[in-house]
Each structure stands twice: as structure tokens, then as C-alpha cells.
Amino acid sequence: MGRTNVTLDGTLTCSRWILDDLQRHLSSSDVVLLGNQETPDGTSLVLVLDEVTPRALAHLASVAGDGRRRAVVVMTDRAGMAPGDGWRLLENGADDVVVWGPGLEDQLPDRLHRWAALAELLACDTVRHELVGSSPRWLIALTRLVEAARFSTTPLLVTGESGTGKELAARLVHHLDQRVVRGRLVVVDCTTVVPGLSGSEFFGHEKGAFTGAHAARDGAFAAAHGGTLFLDEVGELPLPLQAELLRVVQEGTYKRVGGNDWKHTTFRLVCATNRDLLEEVEGGRFRADLYHRIAVSTVALPPLRDRPDDILPLFEHFLHVVHGSVLGVDSEVADLLRGRSYPGNVRDLRQLALRVLTRHVGSGPITVGDVPEEERPRMRPVPLPRSPADGEDDPVPPPPSPPVPARGWAESDLDAVIGSALDRGVRYDDIHAAVRTSARRVALQRAGGNQKRAAEMLGLTPRALQKQRQRAATADGAP
């Protein structure tokens, strides 16, 4: 793969003999050792430690969290390792921990090449431009994705709240997986699977297999052959279909609906969910054997609230993608973006960028006037000063009042709605039911459809929320 750039960091106390051995073993290979200050993106950083101390852990956390896209590897001597030190090094940002010892020199160049390949992939244009962000938690998830795509063939389970970028992660895995360059990425949204027709969607069908099957048709398993099959929200699959999927994952064979011949397929399986699948397994809603098959490798995508430093770069990225040029963002708008909540995570932020662009004119920076009215912070109006009487000094205008929360419970929004309903003759019971219905709907939207989180927002148990929704649905079809 060409030369491998590696930076050796010996700024802390380290064993001189380890550094000497490293340089001696690598001098005849195509590994290029850089100085401590030369640490560009795409370069592996090997941190050489004599022992694992609090100072060493702090230094590791600093270099691993500096926002650069690279692999950070810790190399140390067994004598300097106490029980649990390996786990502490990984928790503080190391991508790998290598204990120096006999036999390591033979495999060291290959391991360095792998680290460098990982660093180069993290810094490549495809990854940098499609998966924007430099926050530590995001880079950890991104590193795991790239590792799974390039160095593994096992099924991958991507978890995360709605809108965190799970489908984008699947597309990245498909793009970087060298074994599927000739195959397609087939996406199946499991929330839209119709129980009676699910078999045909996955397995395909023969002509005449059921009413309306006028011709034979391939399903998702055939379409994904030689490529990647992405099952979005896999936790929504009905149990009978889970059993059928397990057979295909285990054996790579299936039959079309209405067919007798076994067909063979091979694909990279990537699944995504916003549910806790282990909790679903315990509740009997998801097969344990299928879970262990699809969760060989797992990557958890962080919600946007856990990566606040990425909000502004992501917003500017969406502006650039849609507008075609780089637009700046006014400081007041930037403050608004950082202080806003995003129940739908990155998807919410993208929608906000699109709405801002519908108001924006020209190629100048985004200003407060471009922000849709419903997104602006509410401010109490400043009273106009009265005209001074003759001979009186001009009155000093009062200082502006502090901003009022946009959704404060004591505001008159709800009073106005209820007053309007009363004016139209709506009765108390109907108003009460409508408010409860709206509260449930908004909570579910903010929770990304996750009933457990919605119940927590409302101060209810999941069972109580489910019962309320069932009673409302029985009464009038409300959520």
C-alpha cells in the first residue's frame, strides 16, 4: 500500500530500548518514522510509555481527543502494566494497546500498516466529507465503522437514536468494503414490512405464488447478492420473519415464495436499530439466536447532544451541500444553533438548514433574519419611551428584559388555544383529551418513536403510556 507514516511520541518517560528496537526493526521496511510534531491526519501515532501513570493517561486523552483523524496506539512494556491498565488505556482513547516483547517484531510492520491504513481511511475525502465531525465520541464511532468495513466480514449492528446517521453509516461500510465493490447496497426499512407480504419482499416469489403474482420476482436477498443488505430498524421485524432471516444468515440459502428450489446468496449484512435489542430479547420480542448472529460487531452512534462541537460544522456542511457554496454563519445564529435541542438529532439539524435556506438570499452569511420565526428565541418587547415634557430631560430607556423561554408553561399559548376552543363551544372533556393526545404525540416525536423514552418525558410508565394510546385509539383513532 506504499509507505506507512508513523509518529513516535516519546515525550513522556519511556524505555529507550523500546524506541531503539522500534527504529531498528522498522528501518528496513517501508515505515517512515516522523518527528513528534509531525502528526497530520492520516498518520498513525504510536505513544510509547514506560508505565501507565495518571499523567500518561491524561496525555493519551489529550492526543486522542484533539479532533485529528488518525489511529492512536499505545506501546508499553509488560513490567509497566498493572492489572486493568489495558482497559484504562482503551477508555482514554487508544485504538490499540501493544505490549512489547519477544516475537512482536515479526508482526509489528503488519500491525503498523493496518493502523496506518485505518488512519488514511479516516482522513480520506469520502469519510471526511460524508461523515462530518471531530468530537471524541463521534471519532470513536467512526473508527469502529471503518475498522468493521475494511478489516472484517462479519455482520454489523449499528445502534443509535433516530436521526443519528445509521443509514449513512451503512453506506460508508458498503463503500469501504473491498469485497462488495461489484454488488449493490439494498436497503430494507423494516418498519414498513407488511406481515402478509414480508416473505415476498425478502425472498421474492414465483409466478402464481399468490393473487397478483403475475410474474416471478427477486427479493432483497437476491438483489443484495455480492453486495450489502441493510436492514433498517431490524427490531421491528415480526418474529416469524426473524426465524427465516436467521436461516439465511447462517446458511446463505433460501426459497422464493411458492418455489421449491433452494437458492444461494452471499452478502454483507448491516443492521440498525434505535431499540435496546437485549431488552427486546428479554421481553421475547426478538430472537436471542438472531441477535447474536447480527451483533458480531456493534457500533453505537452518539446523539447530537453528546457532540455539541459538531453542530456548527454539520450545519455549514448542509448549507454547502444544498447551496453549492460555503456560507458563513452569524454569531447570534451560531449561538442559537448550539443552544437548541435536536430531538431528531442530525436529521433535525439538516431540516433546519433547509428551512433557513428557503429564506436566505445571496451568498452572504446566514443571519438572524434567515431563521424561521418559529425557531427564533422569544423576547419580551421593550416598551417605547414616552415623549418627554417640555423642559424635562430625555428619560433613560429601560434596559432590555431577559429572554423568555420559547415554550414556558406559564405563557399564554395554551390559554389562547383553550380560549379559542371554548369560544367554539368545545367541552371540557374534549379539550382535556386533546391536550393529553398532543402531549403524547409530541413526546413520541421528540423520543424518535421510542415509547420508553417518551414515557419518561411524560412521567409515565411505558405500560401506562401504551394503555393511554390504546384507549385513545379505541375512542377516536388518536395516538
Automatic annotation (TrEMBL):
PROSITE patterns: SIGMA54_INTERACT_2 (PS00676), SIGMA54_INTERACT_4 (PS50045). Residues 396-405 have a biased composition (Pro residues). Pfam families: AAA_lid_14, HTH_8, Sigma54_activat. InterPro entries: AAA+_ATPase, AAA_lid_NorR, HTH_Fis, P-loop_NTPase, Sigma_54_int, Sigma_54_int_dom_ATP-bd_2. SMART domains: AAA. CDD domains: AAA. Residues 365-409, 442-479 are annotated as: Disordered. Keywords: ATP-binding, Nucleotide-binding, Transcription, Transcription regulation. GO terms for biological process: regulation of DNA-templated transcription. Residues 131-358 form the Sigma-54 factor interaction domain. One of its GO terms (molecular function) is sequence-specific DNA binding. PANTHER family: TRANSCRIPTIONAL REGULATORY PROTEIN (PTHR32071). This is Sigma-54-dependent Fis family transcriptional regulator.
